[in-house]
Amino acid sequence: MNLFAEMRAGVIAALDQMTAEGTLPEGLDFAAVTVEPPRDAAHGDMATNAAMVLAKAAGKKPREIADALAAKLAADARVTAAEVAGPGFLNLRLAPTVWADVTRAVLAEGTGYGRSELGQGIKVNVEFVSANPTGPMHVGHTRGAVFGDALAALLGFAGYDVTREYYINDGGAQVNVLARSAYERYREANGLEPEIREGLYPGDYLIPVGEALKAKYGDSLLNKPEEVWLADVREFATAEMMAMIREDLALLNVKMDVYSSEKALYGTGKIEAALKRLEDLGLIYEGVLEPPKGKLPEDWEEREQTLFRSTAYGDDVDRPVKKSDGSWTYFAPDIAYHWSKIERGFDQLIDVFGADHGGYVKRMKAAVAALSENRVSLDIKLIQLVKLYKNGEPFKMSKRAGTFVTLRDVVEQAGADVTRFHMLTRKNDAPLDFDFDKVLEQSKDNPVFYVQYAHARVSSVLRKARELGIDVSDAALAAADLSGSTHEAELALAKKIAEWPRLVEIAARANEPHRVAFYLYEIASDLHALWNRGNDEPALRFVQEGDAAATSAKIALARACAVVISAGLGILGVTPAEEMR
């Protein structure tokens, strides 16, 4: 049940009637007509912009359309009042039975309430994390992992066919640095002093890799030239790092469907095939780029390169895909990788990048648009930085990592559920402060606790009702007489529950899972407000001593709230709390 969608359908039907009667001209586009909660709850339960968005095309004043539409909607049994305000805003007030029906729908559908067919099975690839396989993941990767996983879950809930993918950056120079760093730890495992010179990875996490290399090779690689051992050590160390990364992701309950390797693109003809595709479209040429604006780099020189005409698809400048020495730029394998996703049949691509990749957005979107001839869309979500605090002070780096705080550090301090929820309490492109003390405190100011406490409160009410011999199964609660739940605090909660299916679709369309976290805080606030009102007004308490029928009615609303909270937490990858300790 999606009440807002149903009411919008009613508005569209009324507009169709007005068209048939000649009140509105033929051929109007109703796509921009919305039904949504009013900005001020005092104005009603829902509002539609129909008169405002249709007035110009209809050649009528908004108020004229609104008056006629209000008369049509007043005939709907669900509508108790259709009120025109201002120049043509139309506010609707709904009968209390409507909100009772919402509660019953939630109890009937369970956590499936709010699921949508918006996606219509469209194939979406969400690529996220994609950390270099050179060490453990840091806190920035943590935020990207949570965001990507929650976004994938949200899209799946909204009816999309979603694939979670990790792109292993194992084809660049950084994996050679990893191999050299691991070799020094291998020397250390063999009793020699490691030479962790500048430019190598200093973290203690490579000590076990060195020991594993010794277990495999003994001392056979000692004192051998780099060309003898580099390839083998690189492959071994990369595999060890990816095993560590998988373990780190598992701590966050993140599981990828696909791992793709950059290295697998080299020497296989895949990069050449992708660029041939662009060449066939007339988008590859030999040319000289203009010098960068501002102060020229000392090493700048004009030279002919192989370029992709990305400006044809909205980029600021054309981009090199091959260097003057004939080697590929970093951009070339990325083009090939995205071409592979297009060839695999995805309709939409989403990349989750760190904030430092902002300059990569336009060129990558241009490449996907060109390769797919605008059939496949690419949305790139940039993840801003996370600042860690503990005891009011910045949380220091991990010795194990060498230079940064790891994902494991964060999860071990805060727990997976708290980490996941808090990472979604800000929009992805806004910086986020993660204070270990605040995310663990039990207060209204901590959204993680506040939402979990709401769910736990309902669970405690259900336990108490069971002890009183009351059937609190969803089927029994759905059959309760809900006609008495008309207090403003009860209706506020029921109305917030009704917003859930609409919120899911809005968040999915925008690829913004943080909206789910925001909504959960709001619905938890309404549940807590109703609970607190019950302290002063016994008639609002969920358990009505000696009155099983009234208790069932009160608990039905609370249980519906808990179902929605559970569904929302499921999207965020957080386990609902049954009790708070």
From TrEMBL:
Residues covered by the Arginyl tRNA synthetase N-terminal domain: 5-94
GO cellular component, one term: cytoplasm
Domain of life: Bacteria
GO molecular function, one term: ATP binding
GO biological processes: arginyl-tRNA aminoacylation
EC number: 6.1.1.19
UniProt cross-references to InterPro entries, sorted A to Z: aa-tRNA-synth_I_CS, Arg-tRNA-ligase, Arg-tRNA-synth_N, Arg-tRNA-synth_N_sf, ArgRS_core, DALR_anticod-bd, Rossmann-like_a/b/a_fold, tRNAsynth_Ia_anticodon-bd
Coiled coil: none
Reaction catalysed by this enzyme: tRNA(Arg) + L-arginine + ATP = L-arginyl-tRNA(Arg) + AMP + diphosphate
Entries under HAMAP family matching the protein: Arg_tRNA_synth
UniProt protein name: Arginine--tRNA ligase
Native species: Paenirhodobacter huangdaonensis
Name of the coding gene: argS
